[in-house]
Amino acid sequence: MVNILQSFFSSGILIDILAFVIVVSIIVVFHEFGHFIVAKMLGVKVENFSLGFGPKLISKKIGETEYAVSALPLGGYVKLLGEDPEEELSPEDEKRSFSKLSPFKKFLIVFFGPVFNFVLALVILTIIFSAGKPILKSVVGKVMKGYPAAAAGLKKGDIITSVNGKKIWKWSSLSEYIQKYGKHTIALGVKRPIDAPVSNKIVKKLPITGKTDYSKTFLIHIKPRMISGLNIFKQKITRYIIGIYPSNVTVNQSSNIFSAFYSGLKEVWFIIYITIFSVYMLIAGKIPATDLGGPIMIAQLSGRAASMGLSQFFYFIAVISVNIGLVNLFPIPALDGGHILFSFIEMVRRRPLSPKFQENAAKIGFAFLIMLLLFVSYNDIMRNIKT
């Protein structure tokens, strides 16, 4: 028993669990607050606001709403008066009942849960970009033997300053230009420390810049090598490489609040695009279902992100928040998207679907989600056994 406990604490499992609980708690609070605030604005009585499911650990009634923290931190819920269409209500309560709202108002309450997931992600990303995001500088950390960079004379510690005359300072720009111009020989501007030897493979020596920290500035010509591989969707791709790895030299690139907000919007859209494309690839059979991850994988990634610092941890929260918001919009009964679908049907039919139909649809949707949870959890367990 002692050995099991020692293994539990030393393996990082506890950190993964704590990080997972923090991630889920933050995301669920924002999601449910979206439902909560819109319901309040529309005059609907909110009976319960719970973080987690199951037995209540802590609860306190403030006004007409009971706020609680429950035992199972895998979600949360907001209980609205009259969510069950068959619930018997007094004439006074009917005025504040969810079931008596117009379909458009129902749509707003349900829709703003996922919306607040996107808002949370945007707020986090805006703060990260505003405070400063670590950017890898174009400094060579390692040169691989047998590749074009080594043959051309690049050394560890070299700073790549240009590609085909275009000035760069970020590693991402270097990668981008290698892919853009890789079909032909490319010219790299290189700065080398004063005490480093000059290789006779250097094609051309450029004029001294006058800076005291670096006295040698060179132009190196390299023909990139095309290789085959797989992208994150396991599609075959080709790309150009020269055989170098970046160093860990970074610079903190901060932005004003408006630029940071715009960068945050682009990042949220990129995460949405990747998520939708991943779902498409999964449905099309181009990504195996065994690649799907569940709570165990999220917990492991949460712990890994937490170990990389606050910026990476909150970036991870933003990514998961967008994913949860988007998945909740899928038209599956028991998810927000299913309720939204029912609201649209009610708008078209001019009357709601029967309570019995909605109840049966919710049961089917819930059963599907349980089976999906079991499946992805099985994937997580088998993946951990293999590794």
Features:
Pdz3 Domain, alpha+beta, 387 residues
Q: Topology, pairings included?
A:
Layout: H1 2-10, H2 13-41, E1 46-62, E2 65-80, H3 91-94, H4 103-131, E3 133-136, E4 140-143, H5 148-152, E5 159-163, E6 166-167, H6 171-181, E7 186-193, E8 204-205, E9 214-222, E10 225-230, E11 236-241, E12 244-246, E13 250-253, H7 257-283, H8 295-307, H9 310-328, H10 336-349, H11 355-386
Antiparallel strand pairs: 1-2, 3-13, 4-12, 5-6, 5-7, 7-9, 8-9, 10-11
Question: What does the model show?
Answer:
- The longest helix has 32 residues, at 355-386.
- It is elongated, with a radius of gyration of 27 Å.
- With 387 residues, the protein is of the alpha+beta class.
- It is 50% helix and 22% strand.
- The protein has helices at residues 2-10, 13-41, 91-94, 103-131, 148-152, 171-181, 257-283, 295-307, 310-328, 336-349, 355-386; strands at 46-62, 65-80, 133-136, 140-143, 159-163, 166-167, 186-193, 204-205, 214-222, 225-230, 236-241, 244-246, 250-253.
- Helix 8 runs antiparallel to helix 9.
- The chain is built from eleven helices and 13 strands.
- Mean pLDDT is 84; it is low at 1-10 and 197-214.
- The strands form five sheets. It has a five-stranded antiparallel beta sheet with strand order 6-5-7-9-8.
- It has two domains: 2-132 and 291-386, no CATH class; 135-252, PDZ domain (Pdz3 Domain), CATH 2.30.42.
Count of helical regions: 11
Order of strands, main sheet, comes to: 6-5-7-9-8
Radius of gyration: 27 Å
* Largest sheet entry: 5 strands, antiparallel
Class derived from helix and strand content: alpha+beta
Total number of distinct structural domains:
2
- Give the oligomeric state of the chains in this entry, treating copies of one chain as homo and distinct chains as hetero: single chain
- List low-pLDDT spans: 1-10, 197-214
Percent range of helical residues: 40-55%
Query: Would you list the SSEs in sequence order as H and E?
Result: HHEEHHEEHEEHEEEEEEEHHHHH
Strand content: 15-25%
